[in-house]
Amino acid sequence: MGAGVALNAATRYPERVAGLVLARPAWLARPMPRRTIALFDLVASALRELDVSIDKGLDWASGKLEGNPAFSAIARSYPDTAWSLRNQLTAVRAVDGVARLERLPRDRPCTDLRQLEALDLPTLVLAHRQDPIHPFAYGRRLADAIRGARLVELTARSLNHRQHAAELQHNLAIFLRQITEDRTWRFRRAAA
User: Fold this and answer.
1) Residues 119 and 182 in one domain
2) Residues 99 and 56 reside in one and the same domain
3) Same domain assignment for residues 56 and 122
4) What's the mean pLDDT when you consider all of the chain?
5) Which of 44, 112, 127, 180 is deepest in the core (most CB within 10 A)?
6) Are residues 187 and 124 in the same domain?
7) pLDDT tens digits, residue range 103-123?
């Protein structure tokens, strides 16, 4: 959910942002779709039950996910998405993050995509086509809305994990080098 949080921060405090990376965005200007919210609610529910019960463990929580028809359908068609949802159960301080899983999908990073037209910062949007929670179309829409944004289509992790990681690292390195050089140039120009 980092892309949504980063987008929200950039629209609210653009003067504090040097560059923006939106990796696999999950929102536009409205809450996530109901079927997606239901998946996050399922994970949050399992974590809440783990928190109050000594008898229930991670195997039970994983079973709760796997036994849910919507989750099973996602797991069959989009193994990376299922993997990501399962990882919510084992994340550091997972139980402390339940409110995040319940609130963020119901929120939105901005109220109108036209807000993004005002952003004047280097932006890299990373997306792939194998994830229903982070649709490629969202990446395209955000890249179109933000002036000068660059959209990069990554190989999906489920198709080739190593290639996905290499493409991600490569594109981030190029982007960071470019904004660092640009900031240095702007700083020198302003000082002259």
Assistant:
1) yes
2) yes
3) no
4) 88
5) 127
6) yes
7) 989 999 999 999 999 998 999
Which pLDDT tens digit goes with each residue over 39-54?
999 999 988 887 655 5
Q: What is the pTM of this model?
A: 0.84
Closest residue by Cα to residue 22 from 1, 38, 39, 42: 1
Assigned token pair, 156: 């999906």
Please, what's the b/e burial string for 86-112 (b: 16 or more CB within 10 A of its CB; e: otherwise)? Answer: bebbeeeebeebbeebbebbeebbbee
Q: What is the pLDDT of residue 67?
A: 93
User: Does 187 lie in the same domain as 114?
Assistant: yes
- Contact between residue 49 and residue 61 where contact means Cβ atoms under 8 Å apart: yes
For 154-177, how does the pLDDT look when each residue is reduced to its tens digit (9 = 90+)? 999 889 999 999 999 999 999 999
pLDDT on residue 182: 76
Regarding whether 183 and 167 lie in a shared domain, the answer is yes
Ramachandran angles phi, psi of 32, nearest 5°: -60, 160
At residue 151, φ and ψ (nearest 5 deg) are -100, 130
Boundary residue ending a domain (105, 123, 140): 105
Domain that holds residue 76: 34-105
Assigned token pair, 96: 């402390």
**Amino acid at residue number 94:** A
Which residues is 126 bridged to in the sheet?
A: 23, 152
State how many domains the chain has: 2
Domain co-membership, 182 together with 116: yes
